[in-house]
Amino acid sequence: MIALVTGASGGIGAAVAKRLTDDGFTVVGLDVDDADVTSSEQVEAFVDRIEDSTGPITALVNTAGILRTGKAVELSDADWAATMAVNTSGVFHVSRAVARRMIPRRAGAIVTVASNASKTARQNMAAYAASKAAATAFTKCLGLELAEFHIRCNVVAPGSTDTPMLTGLWDGSDALLTSVEGSPEAYRVGIPLGRVAQPSDVADAVAFLLSDRAAHITMQDLTVDGGASLGV
Ligand SMILES: NC(=O)c1ccc[n+]([C@@H]2O[C@H](COP(=O)([O-])OP(=O)(O)OC[C@H]3O[C@@H](n4cnc5c(N)ncnc54)[C@H](O)[C@@H]3O)[C@@H](O)[C@H]2O)c1
To answer: Looking at the domain assignment, is residue 231 inside a domain?
Structure first.
C-alpha cells in the first residue's frame, strides 16, 4: 500500500503521514521542496517518478494548503489567485494525476483535507473558504465519476487545528484560546468540545476514510471541529 500525502511537511500532513505509516502504508510526501501543486507539469512528473520508483499509489491525501486572510473587498488579486492555485487547482492537479493511474487498476481511495470554513461563513476568510468549497465540490464529483472503478473520494473538514497555519494567525497560545472561546464580535461561537483539534484528530479521520472500514463511504464530507460549526 502506497500513500501520497501532499503538504506532508505541515502540521496536519505530517500527522497524516505518521498515522498512515503506523497503519502499514509506505508514505510518499510531497511538499514545496518536491513539487509545487500549482504546477500540473511538476505534479505529473512527480507522480510518474513515484509510480516508477516506489510503485502504484493506492491512497492520496490532499493536505497542501495556504491561508491568506483579509476582508473580501480588500483582498488583492494576488492573494485570491494564490489561494485558488494551491487550495483548489492543487487538489485538481494531484487528484487528476493519481486518479488517472488508479482507474485501470480499479482500486484506490482519495481524501481531500478542506475546511469547516467551506460551509460556515467566516470573516476575513472569503478566498480561503471559497477555495475549500470548490475543492470539496471537485472531490465529490470526482467520487461520483470514479465509483464505477471502486475508487472512493471523500473530504475531511477540520476546524481550528493546532498547527503553524493556526498559530500563525495570532500570537501563539492566544490563537488557541480565541478559537476555543469564540469571538461574538466576529460571529464565531467557539468550540463546544472545549479544545482545538490536534493534527492527530484530523489524521485519524483521514485514516478511517482511506481504510476498508469505510468501504461503503464515498462523496462524504466529515467535519472534525469539536462542534464549532454546530453540525452544519
Ligand atoms: N490548521 C487549521 O486550523 C486548519 C483548519 C482547517 C483546514 N486546514 C487545512 O489543513 C491542511 C493542512 O494545514 P496545516 O494546518 O497542516 O498547515 P501547514 O501550513 O502546517 O501545512 C501546509 C503545508 O502545505 C504545503 N504547501 C503549501 N503550498 C504548497 C504548494 N504549492 N505545493 C506543495 N505544498 C504546499 C506547505 O509547505 C505546508 O507544509 C490545509 O489544506 C489547511 O487549509 C487547516
So the answer is: no
- The per-residue pLDDT for range 134-156, each reduced to its tens digit, is 999 999 999 999 999 999 999 99
Distance 43 CA to ligand 1 centre (A): 17
pLDDT at 130 over 80: yes
CATH number for the domain including 115? Answer: 3.40.50.720
Contact 77, 36 (CB under 8 A): no
Residue to substitute in 28, 86, 163 for testing ligand 1 pocket (most ligand atoms within 8 angstroms of CB)? 163
Q: Which helix (H) or strand (E) holds 127?
A: helix 126-146
Residues 6+ positions from 227 with CB-CB distance below 8 Å: 191, 192, 193
Residue 178: which pLDDT band, with cuts at 50, 70 and 90? confident
Q: Is 201 in the pocket of ligand 1 (CB under 6 A)?
A: no
CB 111 within 8 A of CB 155: yes
Cα 48 from Cα 125, distance rounded (Å):
35
pTM: 0.98
Domain ranges, residue 39: 2-159+198-224
